[in-house]
Structures are given as C-alpha cells and as structure tokens.
Specification:
7-stranded antiparallel beta sheet, 20% strand, NAD, Znf_DNAligase_C4, metal-binding, magnesium, manganese
C-alpha cells in the first residue's frame, strides 16, 4: 500500500534527524552531503505543497524567522550559577579537602571532568521533547531570548530523539565557534575587507546576538551540553556523567574529552593531559571543570550565594591579556624586509612573559590602528608567536600619533621602497646593510639549511660587528683563535664550532639552495629545483621559462631565482663557498627513478612518539611526497597522531585518507 503524504514526510524527517545526529553529535556521518540534500529538499517540497504539514520542529525550519527588533528578557526557572576558580594545584587540593570534610568522608571523591569551553553559556528548554526556548545566561537570573538564533545551529536538535525524556527538560551548555570555522570566517572577511573577529569566543557571542537569524545561520557555530536545569515529569540518572550520556542519546552533543576519575591526584593528571593537548583541540578551552559526580552528593553539598559547592573550574594560564605598547621599532630581515615590532610592557600570557611582538607590515599596523601608548589585547596560544589582536580604543590617550613608515633603513640609512603589489617595505641596501648580512648568515647556518651546530645568533652578531665575516663564505675561513676571542666563547667551544663548520661542508644540492636564502625558495621548492635540474650549473644557466617547468615554481618564484643567479655578488659568494670546500653530489636526472609518493601531498599533525614530526616530514619527502602545513582538497593523506585537532577534522570532512603513526612507519618500511 502506498504511503500517505503524512507518512512520507514523517519518515523523511526522521531520516534527517538521524543524519543530523550522526553528523553533528556523533561526528560519524553515514551518508554523503548529496544524500542529505536530496532528503532535505524532498521534505521541503512536501511542506511547500501542503503548508499545513509544516511544523516548527521540522529540519527545514532552522532558518526562516523574521529579523527581531530586539531580544526579550527571559527569567530562568533555575538560576544559572557561576563557578569558583582554582588557579593552581594547591587551590584544587583545598577544594577537595573541603568537600571531604563537608561530606564526612576520607576516601577519594569521584569527579566528572570536562574541558571548559571558551564560548557562550546558554539554556535550552525542551517541552515534550520539542525545543521551546533558547536563552543566554545573562546575570544568572535573567537572560536574553535567542530562540530564533539557536534554532539555526545544526548540533542543537529541534526535537529530541528516542524516548524517555522528561516532559520538561532544560539543557545547559556552551555555544562556541570551532577554530577551523573561525579561521575560515576571518579569511573570508579579509578577502571582502570586512571586520574580522578577535577570537572564537567573541565570534560566537557576536553571532548569537544577531537580530537577523539568517546571519547567525551562516556562522559555523556548535553547542556542547554540560548540565541540566529544570526537570519536570521524568527522572534522570544518579550520576552527572550518566546524565550527559543520556543527553547524548537524546540527540545532544557532549564533549568527547570528558572523563570520570577518582581523587585529587587523578584530577590533576587529567588537567595536565588536556593542557598538553590544548592547542591541538578543535576548539578553544580555558581550563577544566571538575564536578562531584554523584547527584546525591551534589544535593548534600548545595550552593553558596553564586556558585555550587560541588564544582570548580581549574583555569589554564591565560592566552589573552591586556598590556600597553611602550614603543614601536623597525627591524630589517635577510631579504631587506622592514618589519614593525611592538615593544610591550611585559605581560605573562600563554605560560610565558611577552615583552615584544611583530606587527608584520604596515598594512597590519593600519588594520589594527595601533599606536605607541595604546592598551592592547595580546594573545599567545601554545607555541604560536604572540600577537596583538586588537586595540582598546576607549583607553587611548590623547595625542597618540599614527605610525609612519621610515623613508630610510634604520640600520644602513639606504632608501626604503614599497612596491604597489606588496605589503612589505624593503631596504634597498642589500649586503651593504649589516642587518641583512646578519640575517642571511643566520639563515645559512640554521638547522634546516647548512645545520652548523653551535653557531647561534649572538655569535653571528659578534662576527659581523667585529668585521670577521661579511657573508656566508667567510664562515669557512674562521679559526679557533678568532672564535675564542668572542664573548662567552672559550677554546673548547670555539673548537666545537670550527668542527661543526667543517662538517657542514658536505651537504646536498637542495639544502644548499635553501641555505642561500633566495626569496620564496623554501625547502620544498629547493628540493623540486634540485630534482628537476640535478646540478647547480644547470640551475645557473636556466632561463625563466625553464625554471617554471619545475613543479610548484610559478612566474614570481622563477623571477626571484633567475634574478638571484644573475647577480654578480651572489655568484661570487657561491664560488667562494665551493672553493672553501662546500660540496654535494649532483643528481643524474636521466636515471632518476620515479619516487613512490611522487605527486602526492601529505600533512602531518598531532604528536608522534617513535619518530619526530620533522623526521617524518623528511622521510616522506625522501619518498617524493610534498608535505604541506594545511589540509585541502589536494591533500592525498593525513598522518594523525594523538592530539590531532582541526586538521584531522577537516580531513575527515573532505574524505581524505588518514593514517596513524603505525601506518606511517609501515609506509616508510614498505618503500625502503
């Protein structure tokens, strides 16, 4: 018997709810996007044909509400409380001891541990399983009605799945913007010359406060639930962790990194583990929330005026702080790039004390509108270079002047030029400029180039300042006596550096090309050029068109390389290097066998245990692969170790092959 329209639409809606749950809650989609779109349009077509069948909880109704004039206030039936904070292990131990005393016990307390997402706290009210209202936390008693906006977020079910949920269920959680979505949003904003968001939390908050829900719908928001509020007409499990698991079964997203542990020591171990992985997670977190897992114990412990006694947030070191710009200087790099650097009032952020940060170029200075004396927000996440993300304009003092690009190099006084098609301004002094000399030699000696162990930046600064060297070739004329005369260098250290210099004479063509510091010629490009031409002589003779036959070498790179090899002083340095013993073996390009991973692009992410990431990159490149820093449709495979975050997620979204460390080692062994 043929199904009625009501039966058809009910079945199709059920399919969409299932697909949404698998995709947004379980992170395990079972059908391609095209199939989801097919079912979605089938439901929409049936609803358009018979509007009386359209329901507020239909998946087609996530966007469609008219823009609001403003947000109405909502009074929470159960207060949304704040959390007390622990800033160190001693604070948490005191918390744990206090709870044991209040509960009259001396055995370990069982805690539910959850990452503290850096987003916006919200309340979702479900009546008979259907989303009725969404509200912000506000002051804990009164928030704003954001129902039209939360309905646009795919990970928030409009209707709970399954059965057994209470008649009235208030779910509480955090709405946030994943890092990958935040980066993509700001990339697009830059392309359109629109305002960028400062950080993912501001992005989430700004997106939720849009009066037009269609704007919110375009923002890549997600929601994780972390507790419940009002519950009527039904029962929930006896442990907090079990409540979250039940919410997950009803279609709500929970954090996959949540855990249950016993005792204060286990809590600190969890805190340390998540802290190490913090920068690999797909979202920003600013600490860990520890909650007594037993609901009965929670009820016995109760509340203080603004916070529950049974929960505490243990914060990570702040990744954003306020400080002031005490000065802005201009530094000169090895290619003559003039870079503005902000000197900051020292501030502890992201686990280190930050006293200066690059401003990159004048375009960035103008975008930020940063001036000496400004109060700024500085951000440092993990090993990322500290950056100024915004200026607090309200705190700007009168008389603060715009920064002006110098007309002359601050080191050698040569004219400064800035091409119309470049953001970077450059000193025209070339090797006449001592700053460029120093930076070029530092690059030449660096680990990925000639790898001269012990020849640090301060030693090179002294060698140039004392006129013992002028370019990289002079390194190979240095003796123990000259090096031992430098500050903090004894005879033994000097002998070690000379030995490292002599060892560096034996190299490879690609490392030598990279060490020369040619603009836009990085490790991968140097390797491609060496494999394409086989010898330095062939590269010196190549014209622009021949250079562009090399994979990944376009007109701009070819022009830079061609110009470098036509400059007489560069050829003099190259000749001197060879005369002083630097050598390599040429590559017989006629006999080169095609490498097994030729033409394939790999990305390595996460932590590897038996092999370093740099070694993994070198091994893959030796097999012919290109190793990129980001995932795209051109990526062939992603090597993902523990802690892999947004790159792994993007690879899974794009259907790209993913292997773990064992898979990588097997791949390497297979082609040895």
């Amino acid at each position: 018997m043929a199904m009625t329209v009501v039966e058809q639409i009910t079945q199709l809606r059920s399919l969409l709810e299932q697909y949404n749950y698998q995709y947004y809650v379980l992170d395990a989609p079972t059908v391609p996007d095209a199939e989801y779109d097919r079912v979605f349009h089938a439901v929409k077509e049936l609803e358009d044909r018979q509007p009386e069948l359209r329901r507020s909880d239909s998946p087609t109704q996530r966007v469609g509400a008219a823009p609001l004039d403003g947000f109405e206030q909502v009074r929470h039936e159960v207060r949304m409380l704040s959390l007390d904070n622990a800033f160190n292990e001693q604070d948490f131990d005191s918390f744990d001891t206090r709870l044991k005393k209040l509960l009259g016990r001396d055995d370990d307390i069982e805690y539910a541990c959850e990452p503290k997402l850096d987003g916006v706290a919200v309340s979702l009210l479900y009546r008979n399983g259907v989303l009725e209202r969404g509200a912000t936390r506000g002051d804990g008693q009164v928030g704003e009605n954001i129902t039209s906006n939360v309905r646009t977020i795919p990970s928030i079910p409009l209707k709970l799945i399954g059965s057994g949920y209470p008649d009235v269920l208030e779910v509480r959680g955090e709405i946030y913007m994943p890092r990958s979505g935040f980066e993509a949003f700001n990339d697009k904003a830059r392309e359109l010359y629109e305002k960028e968001f400062v950080n993912p939390r501001n992005a989430a908050a700004g997106s939720l406060r849009q009066l037009d829900p269609t704007v919110t719908a375009k923002r890549p928001l997600q929601m994780c639930c972390y507790s419940v509020g009002l519950v009527e007409g039904g029962d929930l499990p006896a442990r907090h962790s079990e409540i979250l698991a039940q919410l997950n079964q009803w279609g709500l997203r929970i954090n996959v990194d949540s855990a249950v542990v016993s005792g204060a020591k286990a809590c600190m171990n969890y805190y340390s583990r998540l802290g190490e992985r913090r920068d690999q997670l797909p979202m920003d977190i600013d600490g860990i929330v520890f909650k007594v897992n037993s609901i009965a114990d929670q009820q016995r412990l109760g509340f203080v005026s603004r916070a529950p006694r049974w929960a505490i947030a243990h914060k990570f070191p702040a990744q954003e702080e306020l400080t002031t710009v005490e000065g802005i200087e201009f530094q000169v790099g090895r290619t003559g790039a003039i870079t503005p650097v902000a000197r900051l009032k020292p501030v502890f952020v992201g686990g280190v004390t930050v006293s200066n940060t690059t401003l990159h170029n004048m375009d960035e200075v103008e975008r930020l509108d940063v001036r000496v004396g400004d109060t700024v927000i500085v951000r440092r996440a993990g090993d990322v270079i500290p950056q100024i993300v915004s200026v607090v304009i309200d705190k700007r003092q009168g008389g603060a002047e715009n920064l002006v690009l110098p007309q002359q190099c601050p080191v050698c006084q040569s004219p400064v030029e800035r091409s119309a098609d470049e953001a970077v301004a450059r000193c025209t002094g070339g090797l006449y400029c001592s700053a460029q000399q120093k930076e070029a030699i530092k690059h030449f000696a660096s680990r990925k180039a000639m790898d001269i162990d012990g020849l640090g930046d301060k030693i090179i600064d002294q060698l140039v300042d004392r006129e013992l060297i002028k370019n990289a070739s002079d390194l190979f004329l240095l003796n123990d006596y000259q090096l031992a005369s430098l500050d903090r260098m004894g005879p033994k250290s000097a002998a070690n550096v000379v030995a490292a210099i002599n060892k560096a004479k034996a190299t490879t063509l690609d490392k030598f090309l990279y060490a020369l510091g040619i603009r836009e010629v990085g490790e991968a490009t140097a390797r491609s050029l060496s494999q394409q031409f086989g010898s330095l002589a062939a590269l010196v003779d190549a014209d622009r068109e021949q250079l562009q036959l090399t994979p990944d070498v376009g007109a701009v790179v070819a022009e830079y390389f061609y110009g470098f090899m036509r400059a007489e002083h560069n050829l003099e340095v190259i000749s001197a290097l060879q005369e002083r013993g630097v050598h390599w073996s040429d590559i017989d390009i006629d006999e080169q066998a095609e490498l097994p991973l030729e033409g394939q692009t790999y990305v390595v992410t996460g932590t590897l245990e038996s092999i370093s990431r740099s070694d993994a990159k070198a091994r893959l490149q030796a097999l012919g692969a290109k190793v990129a820093g980001s995932v795209s449709k051109k990526t062939h495979c992603v090597v993902a170790g523990p802690g892999a975050g947004s790159k792994l997620t993007k690879a899974q979204d794009l259907g790209i092959d993913v292997i773990d460390e064992d898979g990588l080692l097997s791949l390497i062994a297979q082609h040895q």
